[in-house]
Amino acid sequence: MQFVNGSAVGTSDVWQNGEYCKILTAAGLVGCAIFDVGVAAEFGDSIAIVKGTPGKPLVEPEDLLDARIVGVSPKAQSLGVRLGMTGREAVETFLAVPEEQSSGGQDKP
Fold it and tell me: What is the pLDDT along the chain (109 residues), one digit of tens a residue?
């Protein structure tokens, strides 16, 4: 997926009665609410979460772009991602992070 600040990888999976999607950058990911911000925080990972509804689920990565961020890990906050941003704004924020700051948690290279 192409953005102003670079490119990211969008993926989704669908199974019987379920689905998830995400947009992955070197600095972090924007994903649907299947991802757990608490676990990401424990591992020092950068994630921002948007939430769909049963009537309007988030199925494809493009569905994340206009949705509002409802959960942010501490690492993502430290990189500039904020509650209320759109998914697109969060992806652009992650893409703007210098490479030396984009590694993951405390135990990651």
Answer: 999 999 999 999 999 988 899 999 999 999 999 999 999 999 999 999 999 888 888 999 999 999 999 999 999 999 999 999 999 999 999 999 988 776 554 444 4
Q: Rounded to whole angstroms, how far apart are CA atoms 50 and 45? A: 16
Q: Does domain 2-101 have CATH number 1.10.260.40?
A: no
What is the rounded distance in angstroms from the CA atom of residue 32 to the CA atom of residue 82? 16
Enter the tokens of residue 61. 């990565």
Contacts of 103 (CB under 8 A, 6+ apart): 109
Listed by start position, the domains of the chain span: 2-101
